[in-house]
Recover the amino acids of this structure.
């Protein structure tokens, strides 16, 4: 696949790392990164190579197909968030129809022993009804309204969200007091997680399993030290096969990952 136009749907830190690695290893090729938000665009453009193109905005299935046709993609990489199941399903369906190779980037899972497990955000809220105290919601702003609606007690919720206008609007719409919003960009160390939990008297942490790349070990370590319960939302099964970073780079460039 060396030298072909590659489109990466990059919704994670390792997705951005993959994009930049591909740009360095394929200087004569073109890499297009599709990101959902302006924040994702800013992070990539901070060290933007000349052969990188960035497309911002969420896409449905029809828009994905039109986008890939317009880009004349030769290969596609699904490096979206492990919980972005709908996007992954749409990508696989479109690539199958267009007969394009679609490589999924794997993210290591975490041992969730000792956590209270939930299938989705609403079940996580139901579990929290049975647990007393303040809740640190570290699942992002998108699912905040559904969580607060199912919980019925937005005054208990301290959401940790990106410092973006749309995130703050989601918090306001969900009835979260301004003083309860933790608007900050990660990564978060164990010390910072613990400091936030202590600052806001957190008794329950609600999180998705972002793996090591998503700071999950630091979250769990801080919760243990704080004595907080952890409600972890299980990952949905991903469609199709997934590959490691090194495997994807080797297939697309003929080189192993360096460093």
């Amino acid at each position: 696949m060396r030298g072909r136009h590659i489109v990466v749907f990059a919704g994670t830190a390792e997705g951005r790392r993959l994009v930049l690695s591909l740009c360095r290893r394929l200087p004569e090729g073109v890499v297009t990164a599709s990101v959902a938000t302006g924040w994702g665009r800013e992070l990539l453009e901070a060290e933007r190579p000349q052969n990188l193109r960035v497309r911002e905005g969420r896409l449905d299935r029809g828009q994905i197909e039109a986008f890939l046709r317009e880009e004349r993609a030769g290969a596609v990489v699904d490096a979206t968030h492990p919980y972005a199941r709908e996007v992954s399903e749409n990508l696989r369906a479109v690539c199958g129809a267009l007969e394009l190779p679609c490589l999924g980037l794997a993210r290591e899972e975490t041992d969730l022993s000792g956590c209270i497990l939930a299938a989705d955000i609403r079940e996580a809220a139901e579990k929290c009804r049975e647990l007393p105290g303040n809740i640190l919601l570290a699942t992002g702003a998108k699912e905040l309204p559904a969580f607060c609606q199912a919980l019925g007690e937005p005054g208990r919720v301290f959401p940790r969200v990106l410092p973006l206008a749309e995130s703050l609007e989601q918090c306001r719409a969900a009835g979260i007091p301004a003083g309860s919003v933790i608007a900050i960009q990660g990564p978060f160390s164990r010390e910072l997680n613990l400091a936030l939990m202590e600052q806001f008297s957190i008794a329950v942490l609600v999180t998705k399993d972002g793996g090591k790349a998503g700071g999950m070990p630091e979250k769990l370590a801080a919760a243990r030290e704080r004595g907080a319960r952890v409600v972890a939302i299980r990952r949905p099964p991903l469609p199709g096969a997934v590959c490691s970073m090194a495997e994807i780079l080797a297939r697309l460039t003929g080189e192993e990952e360096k460093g």
